[in-house]
């Protein structure tokens, strides 16, 4: 985290109920998070090769581990700064890699993958720009959490829907695509919110520096 701080309590409810993060790396929750990240390319390969049942099994284990590491971190006071970074990274990698594999397997339209991927590229550029002014990543907004949740939930729905061509599974496919579209929409709305927040921070920082230079 950079030397700047944010003015409001936008850190979210999670910070209010979590222990103070520590500067440690080797903890059980972090080990679980590392394993979860390592499982993501496995899931993507299984989907792209259309081993759909196995991909669902690995995806279920990976998703369960996300809740387990959070519980252990809070229960045994092992909340760490790197752990707070690994979780959103794992979510985004899972979204991008899974959707790439779904597109490769012709289960999901490619344009949806491009929409989601472009948003993450824009957010990465904003993070790099803010880092130039000693700002860390912006606090996660609830709209972004909702979009991420919808995108993550649409992945197993689309995989299950591709197991059969029966009417029920076709309807399930439409539900999965609709969930992915709504998730991508919320994803971009959150992205616009982050862009506006970043602009406000940089504008304030530039004004402060200009005022300081004028005084000097």
TrEMBL record:
GO molecular function: CDP-diacylglycerol-glycerol-3-phosphate 3-phosphatidyltransferase activity
GO cellular component, one term: membrane
Keyword Chloroplast: no
Membrane topology summary: Multi-pass membrane protein
Keyword set, alphabetical order: Lipid biosynthesis, Lipid metabolism, Membrane, Phospholipid biosynthesis, Phospholipid metabolism, Transferase, Transmembrane, Transmembrane helix
Record bears the keyword Lipid metabolism: yes
PROSITE patterns attached to this UniProt entry: CDP_ALCOHOL_P_TRANSF (PS00379)
Chief localisation class: membrane
Pfam family, one: CDP-OH_P_transf
GO biological process: glycerophospholipid biosynthetic process
Record's subcellular location: Membrane
Membrane-crossing residue ranges in chain numbering: 24-47, 53-73, 85-104, 142-161, 181-202
Family according to the record: Belongs to the CDP-alcohol phosphatidyltransferase class-I family.
Protein name: CDP-diacylglycerol--glycerol-3-phosphate 3-phosphatidyltransferase
Organism classification: Bacteria, Bacillati, Actinomycetota, Actinomycetes, Bifidobacteriales
